[in-house]
Design goal:
- The protein is α+β, with helices and mostly antiparallel strands and about 500 residues long.
- Among the domains are: about 60 residues, no CATH class; about 190 residues, HUPs (Rossmann fold), CATH 3.40.50.620; about 90 residues.
- About 35% of the residues lie in helices and about 15% in strands.
- The protein is built from 18 helices and 19 strands.
- It has a five-stranded parallel sheet, with helices on both faces.
- β8 and β9 form a beta hairpin.
- α5 crosses α11.
- It is globular and about 80 Å long.
- The structure holds zinc ion.
């Protein structure tokens, strides 16, 4: 915990000096010691932030956050940058996104160099030379990293464990669930929760999207074997095939991630309702504030967007305020097993074809999952042709497919019961950020505009249509957006689109 007034780290919820309520978040950034050749996670307000806790030498500010670069990724980086393959093996190598720090000196690898890299020849190069992979330097750096940051880890662990015990108090242990994705964050959460509650037989729900990295499935299997008392539930959609659905309604895009509810939250909520019916449960997630702009608005308990879709849950994240560096500090200090994908260089683990993946992640998949990547690219190019893109390969390779917003050009688009001929794609749409998650009550606010017809909306988008009371012509489309933190409202088939918004006072404030 942190007292803002006194600039002091304390272990209690009230500052012993000034009595103010302390904060759970202890803002820290990464400093670098040139003598130890190591990153140190340092609270920003610390008076000693320039002094290395290991050698007492002078440190400098390096970055906002950092992750270790494992020997496998070092090999790949050398191949990509056309260096001798062992070039980075015996150095202190860390990274933040696509910026690598070699012995504390930054190298930026541009999105373009990932996009344009010849993945096939790089894959051949590194597979022929995996003898070059050495963990000697890496392991010795890890020992020092763990040592220099041990105080930070102790504080985080104490705080997270007491948070878990505090939050779980209201729930019997059968109703405590660990959401397990196979990623590093849920790995740490599973470990913390199991220890804090001293209970090896908690329920784990593994959401298998069917689009997982092979390393994720392998890790989930190992986890199961190593935690024989844990109740491990697989949540998987085995009725639909992702690629078949893509053929039908087009690939997901950043703003149209229909795959999330179909292959992730849907199966998870089915498992939960079959296990618990309508009992209230507590789910521990590995959600973190630093992960994205939208997530930074979530509360540590409950406010998670998933909870809209899976209603009976209270959601809590013990590592909400942690940095990537903290998560790695925990994993490396405790020596717990984790997904091999991180060794290869992925900094997050999810669906390998997600439209949210950046060029670096796509490059990794072209190297390590070459067949799937090629199949996906071919599909995307065919799709681009189908919807009449003049330069389908550029549309795909430059990532423009991720920004698609409508279902134009598809068979299914013609199937929709109502067509809005006088409305070009997104012209009359407005997006409203919500101060609380999207729900039916919000839909209810549209009653004054007309007849609510959820059954006529496109189900995959969770769309609700509002019909004109006299003519039954749809006049508004309401679509939850951005995982329920926003709503997209589109006026349809009306002459004066603005008057609807004005008369109805659709201000973001009111919503
Ligand atoms: Zn030092």
């Amino acid at each position: 915990m942190w007292c803002k007034n006194c600039n002091l780290e304390v272990s209690v919820e009230r500052c012993p000096i000034c009595g103010a309520t302390t904060e759970e978040d202890i803002p820290a950034e990464i400093f670098w010691c040139d003598i130890c050749d190591l990153p140190v996670i340092t609270p920003l307000s610390s008076d000693n932030r320039n002094i290395c806790p290991l050698c007492s030498g002078k440190m400098r500010h390096l970055a906002t956050d950092i992750r270790p670069v494992f020997p496998e990724e070092r090999l790949l980086l050398a191949a990509l940058l056309d260096k001798p393959l062992g070039f980075f093996m015996n150095r202190s190598v860390w990274a933040l996104n696509s910026r690598y720090y070699i012995d504390g000196k930054p190298i930026n690898v541009s999105a373009k160099s990932f996009a344009e890299a010849d993945a096939d020849s790089i894959a051949t190069k590194i597979s022929a030379n995996d003898v070059e992979i050495s963990y000697t330097r890496f392991d010795s750096d890890v020992i020092k990293f763990v040592c220099v940051n041990r105080y930070r880890l102790a504080t985080l662990k104490d705080e997270a464990e007491s948070f878990v015990r505090r939050t779980a108090k209201r729930f019997s242990s059968e109703r405590v669930v660990i959401s397990f994705s196979g990623g590093k964050d849920s790995t740490v959460v599973a470990d913390i929760v199991t220890r804090a509650l001293n209970n090896p037989s908690l329920v784990h729900i593994f959401g298998n999207t069917t689009l997982e990295f092979p390393t994720t499935l392998a890790y989930a299997n190992r986890y199961r074997e190593n935690h024989p008392f844990a109740i491990f539930q697989n949540a998987v959609n085995d009725e639909q095939n992702f690629f078949d659905v893509c053929e039908d309604i087009g690939p997901p895009a950043r703003m149209m991630r229909w795959c999330c509810s179909m292959f992730k939250t849907g199966p998870i909520s089915r498992v939960i309702s079959s296990l618990y019916r309508d009992q209230k449960i507590l789910t521990f997630y590995g959600i973190r504030k630093s992960e994205s702009v939208t997530r930074s608005k979530y509360n540590r308990v409950e406010g998670d967007a998933e909870s809209i879709k899976i209603r009976q849950q209270t959601v809590a994240s013990p590592i909400f305020f942690w940095k990537d560096a903290d998560v790695w500090l925990y994993i490396l200090s405790e020596g717990i097993d984790f997904n091999f994908a991180y060794r290869l260089g992925y900094d997050r683990v999810g669906c390998w074809c997600c439209p949210n993946n950046n060029q670096r992640a796509q490059f990794l998949s072209r190297v390590y999952m070459s067949n799937e990547s090629k199949k996906w690219r071919t599909f995307l190019i065919d799709f681009a042709k189908k919807i009449g893109k003049p330069d389908p390969e550029v549309y795909v390779d430059s990532g423009k497919w991720k920004a698609r917003q409508g279902g134009n050009g598809l068979v299914s688009a013609k199937d929709v019961k109502l067509r809005f001929t006088n409305c070009t794609t997104e012209e009359h749409a407005k997006i409203y950020q919500l101060t609380r998650p999207f729900d039916n009550e919000l839909v209810g606010l549209f009653v004054p505009f007309g007849k609510i017809a959820s059954e006529l909306g496109r189900k995959l988008l969770h769309e609700t249509l509002v019909l004109d009371c006299k003519t039954n012509v749809p006049i508004l489309s309401i679509i939850p957006f951005n995982q329920g933190n926003a709503v997209k409202i589109k006026t349809l088939n009306v002459a004066d689109h603005d008057s609807h918004s004005k008369n109805g006072e659709l201000s973001s404030k009111k919503i």
